[in-house]
Amino acid sequence: MANTIMIGAMAGAAMLLTGSAEAPIGAQVQVALQKRLPKTKVDAIDCSKVDGLCEVVAGANLFYVDKSARYLVIGRVYDMETRQDLTAAKLLALNPDMLVGGAAKANATPDAPEAGAARAGARVTTQPAVARTLDVTRLSSKGAIVWGSGTQTVTVFSDFHCGYCRALSQALETMNVRVIERPISVLGSREIADQVLCARDRHAAVRAAYAQNPVPAGAKCDTSGLDENEAFAKAHGINGTPVIVRSDGAVIEGFKPKAQLVEWLKGAKS
């Protein structure tokens, strides 16, 4: 009887030790992320799935960091032994109705050749938190990166670390449209946004940033407009990217293939 009690006590102690050893890892990562990504609201951290990596859910975004939160990984994680896409499994668990940021079904169509680029990032489509219409006309030009030309204009709230933003940018490049890009830092891209805003050739800088190439250095400039973008996004529930605003204020969230964008733009009210 005594032996049974002792074994039970030891097992209970072992469980407590295991739990206490695991808990601080997530807590330490949380603290480090708050320092490195102060404007990103982290909803969940799981360091138990992949050795050396912690899975982070932040609003409508899913990414990974090492346990020191020094290195941030954007993309997909595959278990080669079980042949399982761990990122897709998590996205599906977060939102059973959609897979891979609501773009998977659209990306599967033959009309979306730019879909491959979108898969470089992971975005979760949650229930719409952003208003169906937004008035962006009062935002100052200081935080706007304008490129492209055409009779139609779209405003895009984007993050240079977002794979779907990169795919959207590539789609818009092929369209007759003027783009007002307003970067926000959902995935810790503020430093890159500063560089792009201050670049001599902003359009070239946008391309370099999305290609993960060095952004050509420019002179220091006023980047307070990016703070205005961040404040607007926070005030209007924009916690994931991309968010696209039409000239009449209509809003759509997430990556959309070119054909769908063209039809959506046709619906703009003059």
From TrEMBL:
Organism annotation: Sphingomonas turrisvirgatae
Subcellular location: Periplasm
Chaperone found in the keyword field: no
Protein name: Thiol:disulfide interchange protein
Gene3D superfamilies: Disulphide bond isomerase, DsbC/G, N-terminal, Glutaredoxin
Family: Belongs to the thioredoxin family. DsbC subfamily.
Record-annotated Thioredoxin-like fold domain positions: 148-265
Keyword vocabulary terms for this entry: Disulfide bond, Periplasm, Redox-active center, Signal
Record's function text: Required for disulfide bond formation in some periplasmic proteins. Acts by transferring its disulfide bond to other proteins and is reduced in the process.
Main localization (coarse): periplasm
GO cellular-component term (any): periplasmic space
PANTHER family in the record: THIOL:DISULFIDE INTERCHANGE PROTEIN DSBC (PTHR35272:SF3), THIOL:DISULFIDE INTERCHANGE PROTEIN DSBC-RELATED (PTHR35272)
